[in-house]
């Protein structure tokens, strides 16, 4: 069946499986509010993403979507905690407003999403250089590669960032 009838099928899927998905998410997250938010997001994804409906294995499909949402949720929490921990190290007079905090967290999440699409070693090399201030020699030692390879990793990471910056819609 085509996705032209998607809203009706998503409605039926929602009625048949929302309670189950909510319980699954509640067990994973340990928080009813976060579970409700992510269950809502899972069904929104079904409405936005073209998919052949009805699904043969709706719970397996919903679990796959929900698992990705849970991973993203935990990643976001980790980034927020790291940012707030860094802020705690600053004097109170340097604390940003709640609006600036929210914007900074959103920017960090965008950077994280961008860097997560890089292969492991180029991403790690880039982060070591940018965040830790490591020299190429230190990065090479840490990654077990040559300095020349670190230069290639850095070029790859910078090209990746440049392409993302120049991509339409950014």
Automatic annotation (TrEMBL):
User: Would I find Chloroplast among this entry's keywords?
Assistant: no
InterPro entries from the entry?
RNA_pol_sigma-70-like, RNA_pol_sigma-70_dom, RNA_pol_sigma70_r2, RNA_pol_sigma70_r4_t2, RNA_pol_sigma_r2, RNA_pol_sigma_r3/r4-like, WH-like_DNA-bd_sf
Q: Does the keyword Translocase apply?
A: no
Keyword annotations of the record: Sigma factor, Transcription, Transcription regulation
Q: Which parts of the sequence belong to the RNA polymerase sigma factor 70 region 4 type domain?
A: 109-161
Start and end of every RNA polymerase sigma-70 region domain?
A: 13-76
Give the PANTHER family listed for this entry.
Answer: RNA POLYMERASE ECF-TYPE SIGMA FACTO, RNA POLYMERASE SIGMA FACTOR FECI-RELATED
- Give the family, as the similarity comment puts it: Belongs to the sigma-70 factor family. ECF subfamily.
Protein name per Swiss-Prot or TrEMBL:
Sigma-70 family RNA polymerase sigma factor
């Amino acid at each position: 069946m085509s996705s032209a009838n998607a809203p009706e099928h998503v409605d039926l899927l929602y009625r048949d499986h929302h309670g189950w998905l909510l319980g699954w998410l509640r067990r994973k997250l340990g928080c009813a509010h976060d579970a409700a938010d992510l269950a809502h997001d899972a069904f929104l994804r079904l409405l936005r993403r073209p998919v052949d409906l009805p699904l043969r294995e709706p719970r397996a499909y919903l679990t796959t979507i929900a698992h990705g949402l849970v991973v993203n949720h935990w990643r976001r929490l980790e980034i927020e905690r790291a940012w707030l921990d860094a802020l705690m190290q600053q004097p109170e007079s340097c604390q940003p407003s709640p609006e600036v905090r929210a914007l900074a967290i959103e920017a960090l999440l965008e950077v994280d999403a961008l860097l997560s699409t890089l292969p492991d070693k180029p991403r790690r090399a880039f982060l070591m250089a940018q965040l830790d201030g490591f020299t190429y020699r230190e990065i090479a030692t840490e990654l077990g590669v040559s300095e020349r390879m670190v230069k290639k990793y850095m070029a790859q990471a910078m090209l990746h960032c440049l392409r993302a910056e120049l991509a339409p819609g950014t």
